[in-house]
Fold:
Amino acid sequence: MSVVSAATLSSLTSAAVLEEVVVTAQKREQNLQDVSVAVTAFSGNALRELNMTNSVDIAGQTPGLNIGTPVGEGNNPSITLRGVGLNDFNDNNEGPIAVYRDEIYQSAMPGLTFQLFDMERVEVLRGPQGTLYGRNATGGLVHFISKKPTKEMEGY
Structure:
């Protein structure tokens, strides 16, 4: 092996190191690659870089996730994940895709669209999640996690 190819090989190896992504999909902090659940995670920086300003915007970057308003714009959103969704669009219905904000379940469909201010990360978990999250979320869940307050003066 020549000196040039050895140097190139070592630079390629160091460039292939990925940033560690920490998620709380299983109620504890874990590396994304160690989690046994199908997860798509967005950090706060990724949300800004991808210009995601509304909770509906994550559907454009998440495989298998669709958020739409089947009854018309301005109405309750319908969330479908891996083809599992709600077919009856009433304000009182709860779909098979759970939405959480800071570990609090959002049961009202009109409250599922909101601005993504000061988000630490967003996690989309595919597949049944009833065991850890205490709700029969047969299709999966979307978890919006806000930044924790600091002692520094800052704002969005």
Summary: The radius of gyration is 19 Å.
